[in-house]
Amino acid sequence: EEECCEVRDATSMLVRTAPGTRQWRQYAFDACLPSDRSQKQAFQESGVTSLLDSAIEGYAGTVLAYGQTGSGKTHTILGRLGQAADASSRGEDVKRDDGLVMRSAKRLFRKIDTDDAAAGAVHYTVSASFTEIYNAPGAVNECICDLLCPDTGNLQVRYSQKHGFFVSDLQEVACRSAADVRAVLEAGVHNRRVGATQLNRDSSRSHALFTLRIDSERAAGDDEAGGAPARTYGKITFVDLAGSERLKESLSEGNARKETQAINKSLFTLGKVIAQLAQGKNARHVPYRDSKLTQLLQESFGGGALCLMVTCISPAAAHAEESVNSLNYAQKAMNIRNRPVVRLDEHQQLMVDLRHENAALRRELEVYRAR
């Protein structure tokens, strides 16, 4: 079958604007990966490694996979993990196809072990949570389920001045190795909602958010010496968005049709948020509260977190229009400017703020003296 896209180099690509035409549109991004890239190469070349290193230093980071249903989002984020029902399927093949989450977990614990061996002055604590946003039968609004404890029912999104939007009563599991992270992922994926549509036999019917929290505690003398703060609270969230699909092509009926409508609605709301933030200073009201998905992603889009958007497209010419729409979506997102900050506890944040204020006053005083 004729392909609708062509990767020209590491940062640019061409996409056919419509099936059967010779009109091509060029796009430029931070990285463009052809379809023959392995999972390992995608991890190394996508920029996830630098985001993970920042999370270890105390920043918040988000890796978000977006694209049409069946374009490879779940495979990119999770790989083949949890797809097979029996434990006998585990092996080198599954590990070779590990997605961004497991490769990040392995790199994280290698980094932690290296830091502990080199200095011994830094203590790390890692925990994981796994949640999904879905449309329950008969429900008007989005529902939130803890994939590690699904019996808790529909969880609520709360807001606080300190933490922003968060999911209340969400279970977190302590992880001491990459094997612990794999066990958490498998447990969560087993509980995730999937369904068959005309476009994808194993379509994700929910938005999934997997978070690794990385708390670090350094020697008390570091802060006094002007080095890194004594405690930081980093995290990295991997978001596997449900795929967008057209109702007339998916041929969904009944509750599946309502699910598709709800998925498209939340993605449309996310698109409105991105479009508003992409305007920069000219942006008006940003509709974060119109969807639980955008509430939980507020920190990632226009907030104090680092964000990496992985846009997956299908090379099939029949999906050229959807591929163009996905890339236009990503191009707008590139115009958003976040303000990443290290996450500290209240006392340390106050100390840092006072130091910055003191430094600013000193600079101002030097200017007056120079006059």
Overall description:
The protein has 371 residues and is of the alpha+beta class. The protein is built from twelve helices and 14 strands. Helix content is 37%, strand content 22%. The strands form four sheets. Strands 4, 5, 6, 9, 12, 13 and 14 form a seven-stranded mixed beta sheet that branches. Strands 1-2-3 form a three-stranded antiparallel beta sheet, with helices on one face. A two-stranded antiparallel ribbon has the order 7-8. α2 crosses α5. The longest helix is centred in the C-terminal third of the chain and has 25 residues.
How is the secondary structure organized here?
Layout: E1 5-7, E2 12-16, E3 24-28, H1 39-45, H2 48-56, E4 60-67, H3 73-78, H4 92-96, H5 100-118, E5 123-134, E6 143-146, E7 157-160, E8 164-167, E9 173-175, H6 178-191, E10 194-195, E11 203-204, E12 207-217, H7 221-224, E13 231-240, H8 247-250, H9 255-278, H10 292-296, E14 306-312, H11 320-333, H12 346-370
Parallel strand pairs: 4-13, 4-14
Antiparallel strand pairs: 1-2, 2-3, 5-6, 5-9, 5-12, 7-8, 10-11, 12-13
Please tell me how large the radius of gyration is: 22 Å
- Poorly predicted parts: 84-88
User: What's the mean pLDDT score?
Assistant: 84
H/E topology pattern: EEEHHEHHHEEEEEHEEEHEHHHEHH
- Tally of DSSP helical segments: 12
Shape: globular
Q: Care to count the β-strands?
A: 14
- The percentage of residues in β strands lies in 15-25%
Distance between the termini: 73 Å
Which structural class best describes the helix and strand composition? Answer: alpha+beta
- Share of helical residues: 25-40%
Major β-sheet profile: 7 strands, mixed
